[in-house]
Amino acid sequence: MIEATQTAISHPEVAKITSPSGVEVFRKELQSRLDPNAPLIIVCCGTGCQAAGSAEVVDKFKQMLSGTDWNGKVIPLVKPTGCHGFCSRGPLVIIEPQDLFYQQVTVDDVEEIVNKTILNNEVIKKLQYKPANSKEVIPKASDIPYYAKQTRLVLKNIGKVDPTEINDSIVRGSYSALASVLTRMSPQQVIDEVANSKLRGRGGAGFPTGLKWESCARQEGTRYVICNADEGDPGAFMDRSLLEGDPHSVLEGMAICAYAVGSNRGYMYVRAEYPLAVKTLNIAIHQAEALGLLGENIMGTGFDFKVTISTGAGAFICGESSALMASLEGKVGRPRPKYIRSVEKGFRDSPSNLNNVETYANIPDIITNGGEWYKSFGTERSSGTKVFALTGNVYNIGLVEVPMGISLMEIVFGIGGGIPNKRALKGVQTGGPSGGCIPIPHKIPDINVGYGKLAEAGSIMGSGGMIVMDEDTCMIEVSRYFVNFLVEESCGQCTPCREGLIRMREILNRITQGEGREGDVELLTEIGNFTNNFSLCGLGTSAANPVLSTIRYFREEYDAHIRDKKCPSGVCKPLFHYDIDAETCTGCGLCKIKCPVKAITGEKKKTHVIEQALCIKCMECYKNCKFRSVKIM
Amino acid sequence: MSGTACACQEIECGEIEIDYSLLDKIIRYDYGGNREAMIMMMQAIQRVYRFLPEDAVKYLSQVIEVPLTKIYEVATFYASFSLEPKGKYILSVCTGTACHLRGSGGMVEHISKRMGIAPGKTTSDLKLTLETVNCVGACAVAPVVVIDEKYYPKANIATLNDFMDRLNAE
Fold it and tell me: Which end of chain A is less enclosed by CB atoms within 10 A, N or C?
């Protein structure tokens, strides 16, 4: 699936940049070659768009363009880019310089785009974006509320640059922060600037980055710079998007860190489930080394920094720092107690500075614009911006970058576009399997998203997963899902985590199967608190959060399952059945067509009936009924 | 692992020819025989055979001088390694949160029932392996099913039935 990291990627011989000022010279030269008015066809090739067929769209464009008579006109360039973040509308195509936004483009639309838009400057209406509940199209990408309401600092290059072409990144400023660090800053000055920015680790725990660098720099001996790209939280894809869309920002951030802490060896630990990210990174590292921007004697200054990619093998726990370092050494990833921190003794028992992908990607901008500038975004205790993966029951699924402290309702409704299918919002789960569920808008009207505020509400920032849940979501089932996930992923070495999780799963399984007993909730609370208090590593000490937070906010659902043997949301199969409401059913027959087991009968324009013995409760009829006549009983 | 019969014999997969020069290339050349790269060597071996054959693992143990028990520990700790042969087709259902909310759990159940295999297992005719994956990061097009590395966005029971019908007809 993944190419061996050692496989050399062929690239033409390029002249190395031999001085820091050479980066600026090279960028000016590249810029002078660009025609700002030349037509450009940008196709999003992130994992989401690729799943929807964007690679075929790129091929078709290339084929069409080479087969068209241009009559002296400038031939447009087709640029495949990383994830634009607006995944629910993919595949996305943006036509520059007009900034025209086309959504859900298929191979069959390509010919029309070339003939109408490219050759005759004509807009194709059916491909344009219309916000939910609106008839007005929004032609330009930059005017779409989803993008316009974001503050894109970390994501600024994504969707603009071709990640497999380093020159494209250099034109937009990559490696100039590294050049200025190498010419005008001492390592201590770099650390001070990062500390001044108040940047906190974006991986989840929120440890101040400057402080971590400072303590690593103070150690003796060989130091390592490690990037944690083992993004294991289900439903989170910020890091994947950064690695696939703008790998050079991350690499540059790591190189600046290496200079600051006095290291010349870097490791990037990437999840094996992200083959595209590994491939893109390999290309990026080789291109940067060829230009003398990474590797030995960077920019002729004598500073060496070599980055190696290591892939994970499917273990969630390896996102924990000490487990990750064990895995890098080729061992099983079991965390160790942290009385000796990894900045003192980490990878190979040497001082190791480990940060998350997004943390490193923030560094070049902090150096270029200063810590003061960075602090001007966000709040006093949570500075800067944060990228969230907005998923679940929301119109605009994708990546959003917002200043810290923004209102959660604004993210869900202002940027996310609200809840589809006329359903109501029930809550937002943040922080992945170790996070909690925030019951907006009913029990908490709103919350400002920051490290402290989320913790007060019983959740965590985590790496930035944000899962929107509508009224059809069963909170007990969600807790069971997360606990089950953690049972599978617990490394099993400490008892509170291993046993606590298994017992919680047993109880939750019983409840969702209709065999809940009085006292189950109290028992879950007791086990949950014990697990959280006495486990060894970060996974265990937050493992019970999903259970404890749903008990705190959705106690009545637990009671409905245990006492009334009913799942009000219609998720736990033994606790509900579907029935068609005779009063509102119009007999349109859609449910009958959609039912995969032919359990629905009825004549056209007459009330349909579900044969309960055949029904597998797959939701197809419920989801597809236009009149909401399929009821949960 | 050593001492017991190779799992593949139980399901009559036939003898697996181990290409030792290829193993040498992976272990010694690509990764320089470096023990720290053991996980990546194992991944490379698995890419060749689609699982970790016992003889290949024994050879790896000899070359990099790591006890077989340690390799077995690593192979059973990490979810991506398999000590049993995989089917001709690998069907992975994403069970990440976004996919789960949109019904991926029911899809796993459906395939399990119809093909008679639990998640992680292979049909006895070695045609299909059913797997679940925690998140492929394509949440916008949930639920996602991956069949032999091709993504099927917004999959449903009907998509799966189509695939299984074709499989059974083969």
Answer: C
